[in-house]
Amino acid sequence: MADIVTILINGTVISSLYALVAIGFTMIFGVGGTINLAHGGIITVGAFSAYYVTNAGLGIWAGVLAAMAVPALFSVLLYKGFAERRNDIIIVMILTLLASIVVEEVVRIVEGSQPKAIPALVSGTTELLGSSVQNNLLVVFVVSWLLIGGLFAFVNYTKTGKAILATSMSPRGAALVGIESDRINLYTWAIAGLLAGIAGLFLGSYQTANWAMGREPLILSFSIVVLGGLGSIRGSLVAAYVIGFLEVITTSAIDPRLSGLAGLLVLVVVLLVRPEGLFGRELAEA
């Protein structure tokens, strides 16, 4: 029973983190038609921003703010430098991939290859269904869902959010009613950076932070957004839990060395059987 509960808890928590990463990834594609391969590097930026802030003695909650603000700014700079007014998706993919490699190499050179511990948001444990659960995991889950819920509310009920939906549906139509696509894309990249950055902090406090920590979430994000439907926030949320639980079950019940395999198999099957995904390609489905 304890093992099942542990798998359930780990699957629930890790899936919420994958959802944060994948939602930002799919928003950028849904609004601007761009694939940001630096998304994994942004996760690393978020984790190490928190690591440096907490090591400076400013506390973990200052680290949380840093893990949101620094990656959001970094993502904005990526957009302004690499994606704004570039219509060639391949060039943008190559440039963002190079940016991610640079981030990883800088972190590896400065910090080395040894994993770095990021303090937990809260200490202590709670007894849940006969299993002892770290309070940190519970906070990570709750905060992740607060961010996801806040994003859904923002997209569906604010003027800027509705402009994002309109741009995702028809950039030309949005432009005809006075919506500036460059400004909306800038907002989208900033939101995606914030979500990826806080996911990096959570992953670092849940596990550890290292220079290559963003690679596996990025690969799984491809599986998640393809399964959910490219551009669909709702699809990414559902698919994150499918992929997350498959990942945890595979590594916990079969072999830890198979990490990432379940997501890749799902990606292949979906591309062969249902390439449009579960919910199709519309950010408007948020």
Automatic annotation (TrEMBL):
Subcellular location as annotated: Cell membrane
Keywords: Amino-acid transport, Cell membrane, Membrane, Transmembrane, Transmembrane helix, Transport
Protein name, as recorded: Branched-chain amino acid ABC transporter permease
Source domain of life: Archaea
A Pfam family annotated for this UniProt entry: BPD_transp_2
Main localization, broad class: membrane
Entry GO CC: plasma membrane
Family: Belongs to the binding-protein-dependent transport system permease family. LivHM subfamily.
Gene Ontology terms describing biological process: amino acid transport
CDD domains: TM_PBP1_LivH_like
InterPro entries: ABC_transp_permease, BCAA_transport_permease
Membrane topology: Multi-pass membrane protein
Gene Ontology molecular functions: transmembrane transporter activity
Transmembrane segments: 7-29, 60-83, 89-107, 137-155, 186-206, 218-244, 256-273
Species in which this protein is naturally found: Halococcus dombrowskii
PANTHER family recorded: ABC TRANSPORTER PERMEASE PROTEIN, BRANCHED-CHAIN AMINO ACID TRANSPORT SYSTEM PERMEASE PROTEIN LIVH
